[in-house]
Amino acid sequence: MTEWDIKKLRILRTLRDRGTVTATAEALLMTPSAVSQQLTNLSRQLGVRLLEAHGRRVRLTDAAHLVLRHAEAVFAQLERADAELDGYLRGEAGQVRVAAFSTSVPALVVPAVRQLRTAHPGLDVRVREAEAAEAYELLAADQVDLALSLAAHAPSVRDPKFSRVPLLADPLDVALPAGHPLADAPGLRLADLAAEPWIFGGSGPWSEITTAACEAAGFVPEQAHSASGWTAILAMVEAGMGIALVPRMASAERRGGAGVVMRVLSADQPRRHVVAAVRRGAEDGPAVSRVLAALRQAAAARETVQQG
User: Fold this and answer.
1) Same domain, 125 and 162
2) Locate the HTH lysR-type domain: which residues (predicted)?
């Protein structure tokens, strides 16, 4: 295969543009003899004659012009590569892989990606839905660059492998059947619901969150039904089979129909804390730092809406 030397091809192109070996040497801060030697070597590498005498000067052969026609495409591609690499170094380009739990995808990740597409279109964010345990396995294995989870299920702040970035304190509201006696009660507290049948998962993060919130309010919830999907949980609430805690950042379509009333709890409002984590040191990388900034912006916007 023919050896193409980019440096020597640039010298050949400069000779075409400048017209003489002396002018080429001046433009490239080389000596005329060095220019001649480099072009002789290029001719030998390509196996074609590149220069021919023309009076007291030299001119490019037809073969040299053919070589340069193809070299121009190479130069253009190298310019694009330089621009993309520069963008990568400034965090304007590159790929960031994100693992995120289900409700954080529409609430935080999608708004962040939309913002990045406008501000940094060369930055490619790849999203993978995963609960905390899987997300941190993927992060530790370098299969993703950033993981979103609840703080209660994130690695310890003392874990040397990861850096944690707080994003959001997400309130938990209670879903009641529309005809429930407490659906319109003023100042509803979680403790007021101690005797109610509850719907939550049999195990996993949401079971732990519901149980912990109720125990903090002074009671152990009676689990009447077990489900992990919001569609199933809210359908059972609407049917009057029980009540459930629902994260406020769950998307609107998961909040049920007219048969479900979402109540903001008073005084003992439980919250779940959302964090992002990266491999320690990666938060200083330009692309990852831009994604983290976009996630913080999305979280701040959501908190503003929640407070309003």
Assistant:
1) yes
2) 4-61
Report yes or no on 86 lying in a domain.
no
At 241 the pLDDT is 97
**123 located within any domain:** yes
Cβ atoms within 10 Å, residue 41: 12
Residue with tokens 């407490």: 182
Number of domains in the chain: 3
What's the CA gap between 233 and 86, in Å, rounded? Answer: 49
Range of the domain at 245: 170-271
**Does the pLDDT of residue 98 top 80, yes or no?**
yes
> Which one is predicted more confidently, 112 or 203?
112
Which ranges of 90-204 would DSSP assign to H, the alpha helix? 104, 110-119, 132-140
Query: Are residues 39 and 51 both part of a single domain?
Result: yes
Q: Do 293 and 267 share a domain, yes or no?
A: no
Cβ-based neighbours of 33, under 8 Å, separated by 6 or more: none
Dig out the tokens for 61 from the structure.
């052969």
Q: Which residues, at least 6 apart from 236, have a Cβ–Cβ distance to it below 8 Å?
A: 199, 225, 227, 242, 244
Q: Enter the pTM of the model.
A: 0.71
**Shared-domain flag, residues 18 and 57:** yes
